[in-house]
């Protein structure tokens, strides 16, 4: 994003009207520069109201990540932190950095992703200043073949961290969507995880753990993605994105160390305690086009989902199926 636009957005971040003249004065540029920069903002999907005689106002107040504050806070844990203004995808970026020797536990957050990626080849959307998008590099002594429970451990770690921030109804939806439990068994997604592994199936591996959280703007996202989506702000009131980032980074750092030492075993019961559909009827859609209905019994020691069906118990691995509640 060009520097003038970044500065203008920071001037407007409180959400009140500021005249074009006042912006130009504050930035030491012409009103035409302000006008052009705000035109570019509209093209990037940043909602701006322009009202004759009053000036410009952001459609939604924006909050910014305090890069140096976060760097200092994470330095207490000896976690290296890098903040990017804009990137295609923090996962793509960190995968590249991992190949180039980036340090273990490097955390990369971006104010804006232009090509955020979700699971199963889907896009991950998030507006500037509205969501949280970050990735963490975890270099593991465990071979990739032993990391099958990792994505569930990450799901339970994030769910518990969000509960700790006051989102008591945060739950995990297999394998690792973070949802908020509503009336009945209805759920709305608040965060998603994309884990990408590099390295050997038998030797040491590196996992890039990408996390996207809807902090604000969930209602708008629901309409765009066509599934129930929620955001932290709707449940907790005004939330600082940096506080959420710190809470999630700390939780992941602790839980990944535990996973490294003990594997998935210590996360299995907590996963069940956080499971949105535990012992509830669900429908599984397999990649083969089959729909299986059953009761979700939880997960096995490898993180596969167990479903009680008419003729016994079936086991499903992530990637082959998608799950939804049958009651919703
Ligand atoms: C999903 O729910 O499908 C997973 C979403 C993961 C999104 C995060 S945002 C930060 C990181 N960078 C990406 O491109 N994706 C992940």
Structural notes for this entry:
The chain is globular. It has 10 helices and 14 strands. The mean pLDDT is 90. The strands form 3 sheets. Strands 3-4-5-9-8-7-6 form a 7-stranded mixed sheet, sandwiched between helices. It is of the alpha+beta class. The structure holds biotin (BTN). The site of biotin has 20 residues, from helix 5, strand 5, strand 8 and strand 9. Biotin binds at residues 89-91, 113, 116-119, 122, 124, 133-135, 177, 192-194, 210-212.
Ligands bound to this protein structure = biotin
End-to-end distance: 42 Å
Largest sheet: 7 strands, mixed
- Helix count, per DSSP? 10
* Spatial strand arrangement across the major sheet: 3-4-5-9-8-7-6
Regarding quaternary structure, how should these chains be classified?
Answer: single chain
Low-confidence stretches: none
> Structural class, from secondary structure content?
alpha+beta
Name the descriptors.
alpha+beta, 7-stranded mixed β-sheet, 5-stranded antiparallel β-sheet, 14 strands, binds biotin
Short description:
With 328 residues, this protein is of the alpha+beta class.
Strand and helix map with partners:
Layout: H1 3-12, H2 20-27, H3 31-43, E1 48-51, E2 55-58, H4 67-75, E3 81-87, H5 90-99, E4 107-113, E5 131-140, H6 150-164, E6 170-173, E7 177-181, E8 187-199, E9 205-214, H7 218-225, H8 232-236, H9 241-262, H10 265-274, E10 281-286, E11 291-299, E12 305-309, E13 312-316, E14 321-325
Parallel strand pairs: 3-4
Antiparallel strand pairs: 1-2, 4-5, 5-9, 6-7, 7-8, 8-9, 10-11, 10-14, 11-12, 12-13
The structure holds biotin.
């Amino acid at each position: 994003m060009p520097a003038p636009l970044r500065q203008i957005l920071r001037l407007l971040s409180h959400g009140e009207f500021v005249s074009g003249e006042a912006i130009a004065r504050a930035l030491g540029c012409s009103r035409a520069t302000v006008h052009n920069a705000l035109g570019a903002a509209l093209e990037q999907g940043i909602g701006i109201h322009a009202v004759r005689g009053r000036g410009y106002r952001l459609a939604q107040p924006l909050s910014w990540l305090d890069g140096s504050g976060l760097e200092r806070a994470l330095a207490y844990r000896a976690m290296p932190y890098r903040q990017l203004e804009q990137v295609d995808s923090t996962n793509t970026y960190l995968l590249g950095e991992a190949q180039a020797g980036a340090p273990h536990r490097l955390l990369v957050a971006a104010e804006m992703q232009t090509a955020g990626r979700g699971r199963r080849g889907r896009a991950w959307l998030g507006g500037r200043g509205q969501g949280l998008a970050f990735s963490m590099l975890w270099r593991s002594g465990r071979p990739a073949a032993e990391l099958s429970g990792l994505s569930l451990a990450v799901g339970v770690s994030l769910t518990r961290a969000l509960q700790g921030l006051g989102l008591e109804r945060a739950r995990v939806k297999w394998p690792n969507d973070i949802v908020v439990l509503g009336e009945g068994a209805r759920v709305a997604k608040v965060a998603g995880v994309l884990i990408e592994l590099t390295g050997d199936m038998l030797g040491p591996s590196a996992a890039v753990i990408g996390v996207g959280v809807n902090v604000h703007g969930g209602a708008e996202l629901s309409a765009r993605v066509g599934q129930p989506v929620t955001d932290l702000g709707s449940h907790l009131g005004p939330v600082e994105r940096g506080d959420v980032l710190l809470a999630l980074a700390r939780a992941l750092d602790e839980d990944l160390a535990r996973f490294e030492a003990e594997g998935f075993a210590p996360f299995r019961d907590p996963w069940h305690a956080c499971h949105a559909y535990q012992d509830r009827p669900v429908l599984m859609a397999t990649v083969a086009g089959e729909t299986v209905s059953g009761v979700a019994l939880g997960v096995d020691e490898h993180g596969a989902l167990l479903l009680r069906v008419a003729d016994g118990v079936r086991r499903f691995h992530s990637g082959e199926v998608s799950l939804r509640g049958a009651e919703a």
